[in-house]
Every structure is written in C-alpha cells, then in structure tokens.
Write a structure and sequence with these properties.
Helix content is 42%, strand content 17%. The strands form five sheets. The chain has a seven-stranded mixed sheet with strand order 8-7-17-18-19-16-20, covered by helices on one side. A six-stranded mixed sheet has the order 10-2-1-14-22-21, covered by helices on one side. A four-stranded mixed sheet has the order 13-12-11-15, with no helix packed on it. Among the domains are: 73 residues; 205 residues, 3-Layer(bba) Sandwich (FAD/NAD(P)-binding domain), CATH 3.50.50; 101 residues, Guanine Nucleotide Dissociation Inhibitor, domain 1 (Orthogonal Bundle); 111 residues, no CATH class. It is built from 21 helices and 22 strands. The protein starts with a helix and ends in a 26-residue tail after the last helix. It is extended, with a radius of gyration of 47 Å.
Length: 747
C-alpha cells in the first residue's frame, strides 16, 4: 500500500508549503538512517503540485481528515492513560520513601548512642572525651541531642575531613610531578631520535625555496622579451554521419533503431535516411486489408516468437504492450489461436486435435505409442536448437563464423529429413507432425529445407503480439514507433536505382521518388552518404539496383516461393464433401503428402511439392456480422490461384460465399536448402548487407538479429574512426559564393 506522506511527516491534511518544509527538516534531523528514504519520498510526494492536485481532485484529503482526527484522539487518550499510570507509580514511590524515613527516625531515637570511635574519639583521636556527659537514662532523647556532646562530635568530624583533604591534595601533587617528569623525559628522547632527520629536511626545504625564487626571476626576465603570437590549427568540428538504409522492412527498421541508440550512447552524431519502395513501413511482413466491419486484418506477419528479445526490448522501451498466446498457430489461424487442428493429405485425415499443441513440450514424455520413441528424439533435437539460439545474438562479421561459434554446422549443411533419419525418427512422425508445420510456415517439405529452419518452424512455442496504444493489435505499430524514435527521414514510394563509390570513402545514392504511381511525376536525386545499408534481399533488388564499380562479390540470389492468399466469408461452415465426408472439419487445416507419395514429394518445394492436397493451409479466422448476418471469415493459402469454383467446392454447392480479398505474393518465403556458404555482410567499404540472414532462416526475429548486427558493426567502425574526421573523409560541402568551402558544424 502506498504510504501516507502526511502521516509520515506528522502534518495536518491542509498543511502549507512552509509547514511541510519545517516538519521535513525536523524529521530528517531526528530520524534514523533507515527512515530517511521513507521521509524523503513523503516530502517529494507533498511537494509535487500535480500529485497534490490529484489528491484534491479525488477527494482524498477530505476523506483523510476524519480518520486522522480519530487517530490523534486515540493517541491522546493512550498518552493520558500512560501519564496517569506514571503519576500513580511516582506517588506510591514517594509514599514508600516517606514510610522508610519514618522507620529510620524511630529506630534512631530508640537505639543507644553510637560509640566514640564513630565520631572521631578513640585510638585515632587524642582529644579527651567531652565532660559532664549526662546519663542516657536520666535525660530525654530530645535533651541528649542538644547536649554539648553533639557539638564536640561535630568538631571532630570537621577536623577529620580537613586531614583527609590534605592527604588527597598531597597525593595529587606528587602524581602531577611524576607525570611532568615522564613527559619531559619522552620529549628529550624524541628530540634525540628526530634531530638527524630534521636538519637534512630543513636544508632540502631551503634549497627548494632558492630554486623557486630563481625560476620566478627567470620568468620575470623572460616576460620582458617580445615573443610573436602563435596561431594553432583549429580543431575540426564534430562530424555528423549520414547513412542511408534501403528497405523499411524488419531488418532495415531494426538497423535504424539499434544504430541510433548505439550512436546516442557513444556520443556520435548521426542522421538516418530510409528508402522504401512501397507505401508503408514493414516491407513484405506487413499487408493489411480493411473489412466491412471496420476491422483491420493483417495478412502478413502479425506475431513474433518470445525468443525475439530484441523486438520485445524495443516494444517495452517504446511503451508498447505485448500479449502472449497459447500456441504458435496464431500466425495461421488469427488472434484466437484456440480452434481445433487437423492435418489433411488430400485423401484422409492424418491427424486431428482439439487445439494445436506444442508437440515438443506436451508429448515429450510419451515413451511409446503410435510413433514409438520418435517424439522423444525430436523433442531433444528441437530443445538443443532452442539452447543454441541465444548465441546468434552475439556480433558476427560473417554467417560462417556465427554458425561455427554456435555449433550449427550439421543443422545448416544437411536437410531436416537426413538429420531425422540419422536420429531414428520414423517416417510417419515426419509426415504427420513435422512436415505440416514446415509447409504451413515456409511452403516447403522436409527434404528441401535445412534442419535448422525446419526445427525452428516446427517449434511452435507461444509467440507475442505487440499492442499499440490505440489497441489495433498490429505488429506494424512496432515498426512505425521504432522509425519515429530515431527521427529518421522516411522516403516512401522511392526506389534506389544506383550506387556510386565516392573518392572520399562514401557512396552517392541515386533514387527515384513516386516511381510506382501514375499521378505523381518522377523525381530522381543523387545524395552522398557516409555509409549505405542494403536491407532488402538481393534477389528482389538486383533487377533495378546497380553499382559503380560493380560489386567484387555479389550476394547470393536466393529463390523465393510464391503464394496466393484468398480471404472470403460465408454464412456456412466448410462442407464435408471435399474432405471425404468428415463431418467435423477442424478450424485450422494443414496439409502433408499422402503416405504412398511422401518419399517422392518430400524432396520438392513450391507447387511441385504440394502433392494430393489442394492447398497449403486453410483456417477459420473468426466469426463476424455483415449485413445483419453472421458469417465466418476464412483464410486460404495455396500454391496456385484459387478460382470461385474451388471456393464453391469448399463451402458446398449452392452455399453463398463472398470474396473479400485476393493477394498474390511472388516472393513470400525464401527457399532454405542446406548450404555451407553464405553472402557477405560487408559487401564493400561502407556498404553493408542484412539479407544474408535469409539464407540461414527467415522471419522477423531473424531479420531483427541481422539488422542489430549490422548496426553494431557500423557503430563500432565509427567509434574507431572518431567523431572529428578530416576533410578527406567527410562528405564534400558545396562551395559558397566567395569560393571557399563552408564548414558546417555537425556535418
């Protein structure tokens, strides 16, 4: 519970600022060290005007006054009771002391007089005893006290006291004399031992003083000599780097975000310019359509796995919330992710479940059964890959170095089918469990994909979805916020066509704006940059991008798989006839080859690797209401374009359906065959490439890793070069009218 600052500082609810300051000083001076933090926090809360206005607005002070007055009355009552008990104890103590005094007085009056020795008479006192001592039996006690005996006894006491004081004074004097004697002896001994060192030290100090006086004299003499003024060269100003990033996809956005953060931490001025040929941020990972209900449907990548710590960290830093789903099928079946799941091979159902499971977490304990020990073997392989993924976040200069340091050579150089066969995994388990997820993610089969990419696709652990402040639930909000954070110049609908190597080490970039529109005119410009990052796949860029001089080693041209995505609605659920009469059609359908064709199909990709199944995946996204009628929203992903007849066959003859959107993605997923050689990350001096990661694995997580790695390499090079570059390494500044170059601070 939050502390009450008024209670901590013992203040009334309507205390003024002067009262708060006075009580704070008193509390700090009298508090324990453990209470100082609490008192200071209470003082900060009270001095915060916004917080006080919030309390007054919510009526917290009016509610606090009665409670505090009751507490003060209760404390006053307890204090009065404690004071009354203390007064009773003091009165009882005084009464007991009075009774004891009376007892002693009575005892003194009834007892015999003390002997002479106690009053100074006896062996220690040579004075004669007093004369005319009256008998105790004749005179009363009061008369005895007034007799001359009391006066003589008093004089004896005084004489004994004076003798005692004399002896004490004599003892103190003798002790003082002995202490003084010891002090003088110690000082004499100290002087004897220090004298040999004091004399040389005095000589040294005298010599230093003479040297100082001589130097001062020389300086005074030189001060009268005229020395011409010296003009030192001016220190070059801080240089602001200018970098261009070609592509606003996940890799380009992450490069800009991480580079800006690193340069800000290291004090390197930088300005980032992003070129994107599409009309939105996010590249191929973002493709949205609007529904008639006003909702936005994301056809691209709408999630990222929970192992993508770079994206999760960026979302947290930018104030975006993340929501975790129960399974990794969310990319395929929408935000719910809780529907039933089935694997269809074109002739029969190979597998059906109530909901998609993470097989490697749920069934890894199954020792035997339908697939024997295959689940346990594959679970061990997938978990080994999970444990190696953190190594991929370390900076690397080449992918070969990264793969070797993480120990992934076997998983990248061999196909998934080969690794699984060597591990003893049955063919049935590969066909029914692993291959459907690989086809659903990458539109490939186990025989054509590397083991690393296949295990990442099959490990459908819970991903995370970023939620924008407005609640639109799109990952594209993360890309937009990351670009906005960097303050970069964003050029949409602009295609980079040529890069020219400059003599000062940078690159001159030629771009054409509004190249894919028919209304806006073309605008081609050439701008120099200190460095350029190519954040798009080379296979999708080489057709319109050229360099001068040509690249010494061009990146590998990766082949891509085309996809056709069809979004349609229907008031009817899927018909059982296309699925051989099965009445219970799952919400998410993945496909796999038939058992008799699996061996020949598993080594193919694309449309040739589809087999008897008519599509890659079919999912019921969610129900919605259109035109007052409840309809189901479907998403169909196929290798070929889907006709109206194909959709009519799926929903049933005579049943209505409505096409919402048809989308053709010519380069949806890169083919990920086994390989041992990868493209370079540093293509030329100050020319970097992030697309090499598409040759190892694909996805927003891997794109973010590649972008952050390039940002680390660029920032490290700039840190080594320093922030004050010479004129020969700066972007040339155009001359001004008087013929001299203008030196601009920050350029």
């Amino acid at each position: 519970m939050e502390q009450d600052p008024y209670e901590v500082l013992n203040l009334p609810p309507n205390a003024t600022a002067d009262q708060i300051n006075e009580h704070f000083r008193v509390a700090v001076l009298g508090c324990h060290s453990d209470e100082f933090i609490r008192i200071r926090a209470a003082y900060a809360q009270l001095m915060d005007e916004e917080r006080r206005r919030e309390w007054e607005r919510e009526g917290l002070i009016e509610e606090e006054i009665p409670r505090r007055e009751n507490r003060l009355r209760e404390e006053s009552r307890l204090w009065e009771e404690e004071r009354a008990r203390e007064e009773e104890r003091l009165a009882e103590h005084r009464a007991e002391c009075e009774r004891e005094r009376i007892r002693r007085e009575r005892r003194r009056r009834t007892s015999a007089p003390p002997p002479y020795e106690s009053f100074g008479y006896g062996t220690c006192n040579t004075d004669p005893p007093p004369y005319s001592l009256p008998p105790a039996s004749i005179a009363p006690q009061d008369e005895v006290e007034t007799a001359p005996l009391f006066a003589h006894r008093s004089k004896g006491i005084l004489r004994g006291f004076r003798r005692s004081c004399g002896r004490a004074a004599a003892d103190c004097g003798s002790t003082l004399i002995l202490v003084t004697q010891d002090v003088f002896e110690s000082l004499a001994t100290l002087v004897v031992f220090i004298a040999p060192f004091v004399i040389p030290l005095a000589i040294i100090i005298s010599g230093l003083m003479m040297i100082i006086l001589a130097v001062m004299g020389i300086v005074d003499l030189l001060g009268n000599i005229h020395v011409p003024s010296v003009h030192w060269p001016q220190r070059p100003p801080r240089y602001q780097r200018n970098i261009a990033i070609i592509g606003a996809g996940p890799a380009g956005v992450t490069t800009a975000y991480q580079l800006f953060r690193m340069c800000s931490q290291q004090g390197i001025p930088v300005h980032i310019t992003i070129y994107e040929q599409s009309s939105h941020i996010g590249g191929r990972a973002v493709h949205t359509i609007g529904l008639s209900t006003g909702e936005i449907l994301e056809l691209g990548v709408n999630t990222f796995p929970k192992t993508a710590r770079l994206l999760i960290s960026a979302a947290n830093n930018l104030g975006l919330e993340t929501q975790q789903f129960s399974n990794g099928a969310v990319d395929l079946i929408g935000p719910s992710g809780t529907g039933s799941f089935g694997v269809y091979d074109g002739r029969s159902w190979a597998l059906t479940e109530q909901k998609p499971h993470n097989f490697f977490d749920d069934y890894n304990w199954w020792p035997c059964g339908r697939w024997g020990s295959s689940p346990r073997l594959v679970s061990r392989l997938v978990k080994d890959v999970r444990n190696l993924l953190p190594y991929l976040h370390n900076p690397f200069t080449t992918l070969e170095t990264l793969v070797a340091s993480a120990g992934l050579q076997q998983l990248t150089q061999r196909s998934a089918e080969e690794i699984l066969k060597r591990a003893g995994v049955s063919t049935g388990f590969q066909r029914e469990q692993l291959n459907p997820w690989v086809r659903g993610r990458y539109a490939q089969n186990l025989g054509t994909i590397s083991a690393l990419a296949a295990f990442i696709a099959a490990d459908n652990i819970a991903p995370l979805m970023t939620i924008h402040e407005d609640g639109d639930g799109r990952v594209s909000a993360l890309w937009e916020q990351m670009v906005s954070y960097t303050g970069a110049t964003l050029n949409l609908l602009t295609r980079v066509e040529h890069l020219t190597k400059a003599s000062w080490g940078g690159w001159e970039l030629t771009a054409t704006a509004s190249f894919n529109t028919t209304t806006a005119p073309f605008n081609t410009t050439t701008i120099p940059y200190d460095a350029v990052v190519l954040a798009t796949p080379w296979a999708l860029t080489q057709s319109h991008l050229s360099t001068t001089p040509p690249l010494s080693t061009a990146p590998i041209s990766v082949a891509y798989t085309p996809l056709h995505i069809t979004i349609f609605t229907s008031p009817f659920r899927l018909s059982p006839h296309p699925f051989h009469g099965n009445k219970h059609i799952p919400d998410l359908i993945l496909t796999t080859p038939c058992s008799w064709e699996y061996t020949s199909i598993s080594g193919r990709s694309g449309a040739h690797g589809l087999g008897q199944a008519p599509f890659w995946s079919l999912a019921v996204l969610k129900p919605l209401v259109e035109e007052g009628e409840k309809r189901w929203l479907y998403k169909l992903v196929s290798a070929r374009e889907t006709t109206d007849a194909d959709i009519q066959r799926l929903v049933g003859v005579g049943h209505r359906f409505y096409i919402i959107h048809r989308h053709h993605a010519p380069a949806a997923y890169p083919l990920l065959p086994p390989r041992s050689q990868f493209s370079k990350i540093r293509l030329e001096e100050n020319l970097w490439y992030t697309g090499a990661m598409d040759e190892l694995a694909t996805g927003v997580e891997w794109a973010s890793i590649s972008g952050a790695n390039v940002a680390t390499l660029v920032a490290g090079q700039w840190r080594r070069e320093g922030v004050r570059l010479g004129v020969g390494r700066r972007i040339p500044v155009p001359p001004v009218e008087n013929g001299t170059e203008e030196v601009i601070e920050g350029r």
